[in-house]
Design goal:
Blueprint (H helix, E strand, L loop, with lengths): L1 E5 L4 E8 L15 E7 L7 E2 L9 E2 L5 E2 L4 H5 L7 H10 L12 E8 L6 E7 L7 E9 L2 E2 L5 E4 L21 E9 L2 E8 L8 E7 L7 E2 L7 E3 L13 E8 L2 E9 L9 E14 L5 E7 L16 E3 L5 E4 L24 H7 L3 E3 L3 E20 L9 E10 L5 E10 L19 E18 L18 E11 L1
Antiparallel strand pairs: 1-2, 2-3, 3-4, 5-6, 7-8, 8-9, 9-10, 9-11, 12-13, 13-14, 14-15, 14-16, 17-18, 18-19, 19-20, 21-28, 22-24, 23-28, 24-27, 24-28, 25-26, 25-27
Length: 485
């Protein structure tokens, strides 16, 4: 289910779907997903189903009671936001197959209020006849009454565009587009949907873009960061099926909330909720035009800092002046504090190579982060390379120029800060490091002005594949400094 708040009515509307229990004398309908809408004065409910006695197939008996034709399935259709007869007419107009069932089967409703026009829209998944699903949308007059003539198909499974013929690379084996979510950013509308089977490791989230709420939407290519969440070309051993999601923005930070499987090796329907940060990256699209796209720091299973809204601390690393020794030619210290964790090794490969870069060094480095004034700091997270060949074994030394309890300038030191190799290497292959993992130092809140991090390349004894494949000797994914808000 998904809920939207109507500020004018001061009411919450809940959308979902259900399959009525079949009685012994009724025909079993395969996955008969009936749309449902309910409302409440509170997001916690109770929600009351909205009945539509004005539907065109409704009649009343001699006791003036609303009666629905033939089956209990049709009885429950009174709680749908769609008039089945009018929706059938739209299905014919849109050339949607109606051979087996004339009633719209729909799941995964997503209500959206356009911040530009304040118009209401409803997005949903049409899983008609189980022969492949696709995404539909329409403008809503009210939250329980569509403007039927605006009903349209906005994604076609396996293809970049509804009217296109080019197969999407990440959907070659997929017949599923489901779980839509829409947000508005910088003049564009971004649709994110899940692809592949939710039971499978390949279940993923992709993004599409349009100039208006009803499209036409174009799914982004791999080179544009089309995959938002995946298991990195199926190579992750610690994540399975990251998909079916929602996006929320709090205090200017976007988060993605999604499912992933409890057992990464088995998949299935047993899942739990995960959260990762989403950043906007400005790129050149396939036509050479400027475009902002979403990028997720995930999926992660390693220790991450709390969301800013749930903590007294936030990442302040980007407020520091950064310099480093032995920086590899072509690399930059800016990558250390850009907020982007380089998670993928193979998915979105061209996009990652252009826009989500690790900072590379030619040997031992001293990284210095200097603030204009003393800051109240609680922790330091130094993210390792996603490649074993350029990973550090441990952090050799960290120096903090800070004030002690008597307000006197002192330097405090941490030596040999460990990286949790047992947790952050593959179960199946100890030569594979898990992306998005950090060496973490947490301490009593301290007033700090400068941090110097000394990192030496790993030796072959520590990481015997280090330095292979002509890769740099040392690379870092990101540095985060947790300072008081």
């Amino acid at each position: 289910p998904e809920i939207v708040y109507d500020a004018e009515e001061k009411m919450y509307y809940l959308f979902g779907s259900s399959t009525p229990q079949v009685l012994s004398n009724e025909k079993q309908l395969d996955y008969f997903a009936l749309p449902l809408v309910a409302k409440s004065e509170s997001p916690r409910g109770p929600f009351k189903m909205i009945s539509h006695s004005n539907y065109s197939y409704v009649y009343k008996n001699e006791n003036n009671e609303v009666v629905f034709d033939e089956t209990r399935h049709q009885y429950f259709l009174q709680f749908s936001p769609f008039d089945p007869v009018k929706m059938y007419e739209q299905m014919l107009r849109l050339n949607i197959d109606t051979e087996n069932v004339k009633i719209m089967r729909a799941i995964d409703f997503h209500p959206f209020i356009d911040p530009v026009t304040n118009k209401k829209y409803l997005y949903f998944t049409n899983n008609k006849n189980n022969n492949g699903t696709f995404t539909m949308a329409c403008e809503m007059k009210t939250w329980d009454e569509p403007i039927y003539e605006t009903m349209t198909v906005i994604t076609k499974n396996k293809y970049y565009e509804v009217d296109g013929t080019e197969t999407a690379l990440y959907e070659k084996m997929s017949g599923i587009n489901e779980g839509p979510c829409v947000i508005y950013h910088n003049g564009k509308y971004y649709l994110s949907i899940s692809i592949n089977n939710y039971l499978d490791k390949s279940y993923s989230v992709i993004q599409a873009v349009a100039d208006s709420p009803l499209g036409k939407f174009r799914k982004l290519r791999d080179s544009e960061g089309g995959l938002l969440l995946s298991t990195d070309a199926m190579i992750m051993d610690n994540v399975s099926g990251p998909g079916h999601h929602g996006l929320i923005e709090i205090d200017g930070q976007l988060y993605i909330i999604y499912h992933k499987h409890n057992d990464p090796s088995e998949g299935g329907s047993a899942r739990h909720v995960a959260v990762d940060r989403v950043n906007w990256i400005s790129i050149k699209d396939m036509n050479g035009n400027d475009l902002d796209v979403m990028y997720v720091n995930g999926p992660t299973t390693s220790i991450q800092r709390l969301p800013d809204f749930a903590s007294e601390y936030e990442n302040i690393a980007n407020e520091a002046k950064v310099k480093a020794t032995n920086l590899k030619e072509g690399s930059s210290v800016e990558y250390l504090t850009d907020g982007l964790q380089s998670i993928y090794k193979f998915a979105n490969e061209e996009f990652i190579a252009n826009y989500v870069k690790e900072t590379e060094f030619t040997g031992k480095t001293v990284i210095t982060l200097t603030f204009e004034d003393y800051r109240d700091i609680k922790a330091l997270m130094i993210y390792n390379s996603k490649w074993m060949e350029s990973a550090f074994y441990e952090i050799y030394r960290i120096e903090f120029d800070c004030l002690n309890s008597k307000n006197k300038k002192v330097t405090k030191v941490i030596k040999n800060l460990k990286f949790d190799w047992n947790a952050y290497t593959s179960i199946d292959d100890i030569d594979v490091i898990r992306s998005g993992s950090a060496a973490i130092a947490e301490f009593n809140e301290t007033k700090i002005k400068e941090i110097r991090i000394v990192i030496e390349p790993a030796t072959n004894e520590e990481i015997y594949v280090h330095g292979a494949n002509e890769m740099s000797e040392l690379a870092l994914g990101e540095i985060e400094i947790l300072g008081r808000r």
